[in-house]
Records
---
Amino acid sequence: MPVTERVVGQQALDRVTAELGSLVGDARVNFDQIDVTCTPGNLVEVVAKLREAAGIEARFFTFLSAVDRTAFGGEERPDTERGTPLEVLVHLYSPDHATHINIHVPVDQADPRCPSITSVFGGALWAERECAEMFGIDFTDHPNLTNLYLPEDFEGNPLRKAFKLPTRMVKPWPGAKDPEEAAGGGRG
Amino acid sequence: MDVARTEENIRLPDEVAQEVAEGRLQTEQMVLNVGPQHPATHGVFRLLATIDGEVLVDAEPVIGYMHRGYEKLVEARDYRQITNLVSRMDWLSGINNEMPLALAVETLMELEVPPRAQYLRVVLLEMNRILNHLMFFASFAAELGAITPTFYAFREREDIQAAMEMATGGRMHFGYMRPGGLKEDVPKGFFDQALFGVRQVMDRIDDYYNLIIGNEIYKQRTIGVGVLDKELAYNYGVSGPIARGSNIDFDVRKDEPYLAYADFDFEVPVGLNGDCFDRFWVLLHEVYESARIVEQAIEGMPSGPILGKVPRVIQAPEGEVYVRCENPLGELGMYLVSDGDRRPYRLKIRTPSYNNVSVLPVVLRNTFVSDMIAILGSFFFVLGDIDR
């Protein structure tokens, strides 16, 4: 069945906030997609509800990843508007309503923990393993949280901003000189 | 040697007979390592299969042999460079990989793309889809033991490949998309070559259909084999021809038309049962639909510029957006977080093969070893696309 009833923008936001109520904090529309923020403790309940709720039915697991915002805008930012610079990001999609929902889950930066959503979405099995090794986030009660890509003895979490690319340390970013001198050296 | 058949010489040894009688006869499980260099894996992919006799009890794909860390690399490159980088993710559909990046930057920068660029993009994307599908048409048949389709597929691929080469100069990695449009206009003669290529495929696809789909051996090996349940597909984020084989009418080109897809008349083929047969059936039908789109796009090709009003330095303003495209193998999405720099702050790349293959352990469980290659082949994945 293709999209039966298109629900995007404000209409989708109304349905999502009506369904989730106080489970989520900030909720807004971003390019016709829904952005919600929730605490790690509520995440499993939020994704389960979004999957089942009539009128939303976000059954399609798009991806799970994380964003480290410590160097956002080129400066060190210990705090962001969501409280902590590190967040888990889950994207769900509703095939019946063409609704996109981005769930931002701020986690503690020093000791990042987040409950696993593998009990709701099987697709998170690999995604959480990848996210765990790349960002150092502990997905509690994941059945097998071993490395997906990196060797077992790899040190560090490559996608954290604190992890610098060795090539960028020995050689500045070539883009800074081309096509004209731009401020800032290499990042990442 | 005594060959007379008596009760005595066909009897089980006493201790075995007793085990059978008491129901204690146990088989032994063993772990079979498939790959990482197995030809059926399209790259370096390893499958740890636990087998009990002829039955696969458990199968664990081991990926990461081609992990290049794109999500980190893109953070140190500007958008022009990333176009060429992402082109190499799924090496069978280079130009399709470049599309969501350009769309994401265009969305954040609110760039207007001229109609001619949109139509040309569609032509190139769909021709690349045909190239990709013909490749899997060849390889899937070869994995089931039929070598002839390979020669047909590559003969047909060549004319479309030649058209792609005329326009972009590349055969695999095109680097042709730009935020705001295309690198340059297509040369004279491109449309004739492209039409020749796709019409040839349209003429011959029926023969291939009959050659394989109607074949009794092929049916025996694929019908009812490796069934992917509809809900399971949603649950793992399976998309593309694999999902459509499982009776899911899910195609980004129809559901959320991007570029000029809303202007064209095409069908989304959908399978019935989600077995190997249906997945391949969908793939073959998509070749025809893509060829139809190319024909329509070339017939209605607008004139005009191929690049919109784009600043000399591409700098996406602060913001974030998720953009997705219907790649030949499924939904390719990019979540772009920009802090206003010329480099993305974070680019999450959601590739179709990654989600499609992550469901394999569930699909392979309790199937026969002899069906394993058919199932693997029917999941149409590219390793570079999984590992990124």
Note: Chain A touches chain B through 50 residues (CB under 8 Å).
---
Amino acid sequence: MLPKLYVNGWSCLVGDCSAENFASFMDVRKLRRAETVSKNVLLCAFRALEQAGEKRQEKSGWGISLAMGAGALGSTLKFMDSIIEDGDELSSPTAFASSVHNSTALLLSLFLHIHGPCVVTGQLDSSFAGALLTAQQFLAKDMCRQVLVAITEDVNPLLMEQVQRDPHVFDPFMYQPSCPPQRVAGVFAVSAVPTEATRFVLDDFQLSATADVASCTEPQVSVCSCAHTVLALKQQLETQAPFVFHEQFAGSVFDCKGEPYVRP
Amino acid sequence: MTSSQKVSVAGMGCICACGHTPESAFEGALRGEAYFAFPVNRVESTYTSKFPVFMVPPDICAAKPADMTFSQFFFIEAAKQAFEQAGISPRQLSSKRVGVVVGSSVHPSFHCFEIYKRWKHHTLTAQDVTGLKNYLATPLAPWVSRFFGFKGPVQTVVTACASGTDAIGMAKNWIETGLCDAVLCGGTDEISESPYDGFIRLLVSTPQKCRPFSKDRTGINIGEGAAALLLVNADTAREFHLPCHGYVLGYGNACDGFHPTAPDPQGTGLQQALTFALRDANVQPQDLAFVNAHGTASQANDSAEAVAFRAVIPDVAVWGSKGVTGHTLGAAGAVEAVLSLQALNKCILPATVGFTMADEKLGLTPTMQTVPIAKRVAVSDSLAFGGCNAAIVLEACDAA
């Protein structure tokens, strides 16, 4: 029997964090080498943990399930830039190390003092749905008691240019002409049993390959960013009303139900 | 756990530098033979005649369809082998909840190097735009699921070099928690510019053949390939009369929270992952025939692993297989799981190819020759950048 997910805190960020945002959480100088996408999600994690009532320094019993649609894109591009501009013999090892998906997960585990299970999901638009599924599995198998389900997304300048040329094909969300492209991050603190901070319950997860296989013979590109899911889910939670959530991705669909938690 | 509850391996497939099937890869591991590319011919880099890699042989690669990446091609071929070994077609499983979990590092990243280069130089072509659309339409696990016509859950795991082990562990959990009846899982990765240059620039790669756990080890050789396992629950195995090639008994995962590219020297996260995997499997260290180590032959990795092994699974035989596969990154854990199951089922443990002399600082000596094994259970572990550690516990098939 798969557990429901009790949502005990959440925080989302559209745009970038500033150094001042970290003042009450940590010495911001320790983040001077961190990538912006990683700092954005770290800030959300601090805020979500605060909302969840987690005040311990060493957060035993916590796990991390991180979603990154296209990985640490900024660093990936920086590394490719350094090869193209400086030649591979002078390419940046720091950019390469930061381009690995786990570099963002490291920042969370290092500064939040989480040493439990940690898995990163990277399948473009359906990444966040995958991360929720992983969190549910962590809890079902008692790998930890609470999970930070996190997402952080960068802006891809190459895709952005293509979207402006061909908006019907590429991401209609992050790169809409009316909506300036911005980084998006979000964190949900969830558990398998309610805590004093529980505010919402998510249930009936389904992340499935698209049912109608025949319809997928042509590539379907609806959205290219998993940021869309996290912001849509946040919007639903903020309505404080029950909801049924459905999203269609490139090759998969995600469904879940949610309702405000009523304390017995 | 009784065999009626265990998650069994109905079929497996493998393509890597030491073989293009599970059987031939294990034979390659026993003989110490593999396709060691020097110079490297598939990447553009000034290092290609300095830093060799383990590659899938060109005659296998020649069959790659133009519309697939090497990562996709390797995994599909490995998956087809898995179905063939299981004696079942994907279509026959259409009434079942079949999930797909694939670990990888290159395909899920935006490593469209040539397209990106042309965009930077304002020479993007119409074909490049099509390439971008294809990239967006083919997130790995959903694409694999669609390829075989499955409708179950899909997950692409990108915990770098631990991805393959994580994918198999997560697939086992999906079945145990009732999410799926069967899961096609594994890992895949290909040689490409970013990891090739990146590991060299991090001073982790070696211009020589890697020497896992040796005193004179000088670094890693990256590799490529894929392995796929078809895991099933007992009801599905019975219903379709599926063969059993082993079991996945346990899975553990824990992070170090220590350093971007180096493991915790105390192997703290790995110790925790191993401990959890053994507990999940209800297996004691003394039950283990061997551990298939991550054994990249980097100073830091082998040292951290040795500390963790001494603490959690002391006196267990250590086998490193990257001397014949190279470090296949996101595929490594899956390739090593297949090789480990072969070893368990054949009751022989190969030598650690590349090992030269014991490093007294490690306090362990890996296998130096092929030896018979009597125990039925083994553990395979993976470490990754960012301090992510994963371990799975495997058991031989019942007939072994």
Note: The first strand of chain B starts at residue 7 and ends at 15.
